[in-house]
């Protein structure tokens, strides 16, 4: 993994002002053991899942490129085995930014077909004021899948499953069957209003539908690694499901009755959730996102 230490560019993507304003030097990687051989790494960007054992290291997402050395150091504190696989839950830069560095170091990158398609051409997400350049070949997923992919490693069956459009059109969650652990990617963000990225093929109503697919897999003992936020469990996912469905359920009829965005904002459809969920993404921004996502598309 020595190649990683000398590859400190911003990897495959141009993150725009959003990433360039971050002070990555100040970021510390926090490691939490979730289950035997399974860990969650928190830093800047999406939470990273780690499976470490006799078969090597399997990563779920890899945050931003400048953090790769710190992430590798955190992994080395867990295991002296190489990072063999990196699975991207979707294509956003705070989840795939380390792909180029890890790909150069020999990791095989895996993702859904749509992640490959979006990374290979790049694009802009106006909502976040982010611009993405086409990714270099080494940063692209070398293996893609349409519905599911399963890894039999480190004593577990690890399955990545694609869901219909939700956060984006390329979202996958990852389930460690025996360990009873699920990494949700950004389908679930703990105690922060989520992003519904319709510009990347996402769907406002798809978030709740995706959670409905996940819930039968989650029991009272399941550990849930969210895309962002603290390690969670069933009660946290249920609270998220209630929040999303309540807010969307209030905004949708107003959109159908042709209320303006200003009228919808004035109605305060997130009112009872703002204190707990509105600390990262502000309530008005969340409401506007839903409004735009539900509004009829202009032809």
What this model shows, in words?
With 299 residues, this protein is of the alpha/beta class. The chain has a single domain (2-244), classed as 4-Layer Sandwich (Metallo-beta-lactamase, Chain A). 31% of the residues lie in helices and 22% in strands. The chain contains eleven helices and 14 strands. The strands form three sheets. It has a seven-stranded mixed beta sheet. It has a five-stranded mixed beta sheet with strand order 10-11-12-13-14, with no helix packed on it. Strand 1 (30-35) and strand 2 form a beta hairpin. Helix 8 (234-256) crosses helix 11 (283-294). The radius of gyration is 19 Å and the shape is globular. Residues 1-18 have low confidence and may be disordered.
Name the descriptors.
11 helices, 5-stranded mixed beta sheet, 7-stranded mixed beta sheet, 299 residues, alpha/beta, 14 strands, Metallo-beta-lactamase, Chain A
Tell me the layout of helices and strands.
Elements: H1 2-5, H2 16-20, E1 30-35, E2 38-42, E3 48-53, E4 56-60, H3 68-76, E5 83-87, H4 93-96, H5 99-104, E6 108-112, H6 113-121, E7 123-125, E8 130-132, E9 143-145, E10 148-153, E11 156-162, E12 172-176, E13 181-183, H7 204-214, E14 223-225, H8 234-256, H9 261-266, H10 274-277, H11 283-294
Parallel strand pairs: 4-5, 5-6, 6-9, 13-14
Antiparallel strand pairs: 1-2, 2-3, 3-4, 7-8, 10-11, 11-12, 12-13
